[in-house]
Amino acid sequence: AMSLEEEEEDKPLIISNKPEYSSCGNNALSNIGRVLNPDCQRISHLVMDLPRKWGKRDRIRGFALSNERFQFFFKTEHDLVEILDKGMQCFNEWAMAMERWVERSPVDFLQFIPIWVQIRNLHVNQYRSQTVWDIGKVLGEVKEIAFDDKENQSQPYVRVKVMFDESKPLRKSKVIQLPDGEKANVNFYYKRIQKRCFNCQRLNHEKDVCPLLVRTRQERATGRGHRVAEERKEQEPIIKSSGPLFGVLSEDQVDVNPITGKLKINPEVLEDLRRYLVANNGDDLSVKRGESKVPLLKRKKTLMHRR
């Protein structure tokens, strides 16, 4: 049969620019969002739950765009801006990114989330707005600082609003060097951040599935498998020249798998094969050896059938 490419050229379908084809008018009063941890944030639940959480269930329509993206349509500009002004928000305790719809999305669309960060342990001689601004830039683009060195300061921290790149880990602290060469450590606390990976501090997965931990476990398993394989080489061979399996299987087929650290063939299967080869059931040994070279799973079924 001829393929589609052979029958006709697969030309793109051209969508008309007529008004009835475009949803840009409807999108003008909408926000686009992306969940950061899709494994723990179901879009089907999100589009139903967030309007209720915001207290605007009758004034917002939610659409699932994919397993990661969603869209909310608003009836008024006021409601749309009010939701965005809330800053970073969570669903099912995991963060999500949300921005106002634009007709042509930039490459970094929905990559940054606005977060208010508390800066703690600021050195007493550096309580100035410019110091706070420079420290905030360590975390992302600074949008605002809630600090005035000419006003009362009732809390043991200063706050800064940054656009945080969600692909990066949350920094817990930063060493700063003072003008006299002394070094000090400032700590960061992120407002509204609930869950994160407590290994790499990223916002897009749980600790159990952290890629860094997964890779470490795989490397340890591989290393353990290689060690077991090396130790096995120093022991007596499984296939002995005087045994019935000699000539039927090679040592490479039955020794330790360096990846798993386990024998490639279950010892019980090998024992079944040995018993069959030495059993006095009237079959010639050479015939048995030839039969035994079939795949071991099939051979095991044969052995079970003859018992």
Automatic annotation (TrEMBL):
Record-annotated DUF4283 domain positions: 29-104
InterPro entries linked to this entry: At4g02000-like (IPR040256), DUF4283 (IPR025558), Zn_knuckle_CX2CX4HX4C (IPR025836)
Positions of the Zinc knuckle CX2CX4HX4C domain: 164-211
Pfam families assigned to the protein according to its UniProt record, in alphabetical order: DUF4283, zf-CCHC_4
Domain of life: Eukaryota
Protein name: DUF4283 domain-containing protein
Organism: Noccaea caerulescens
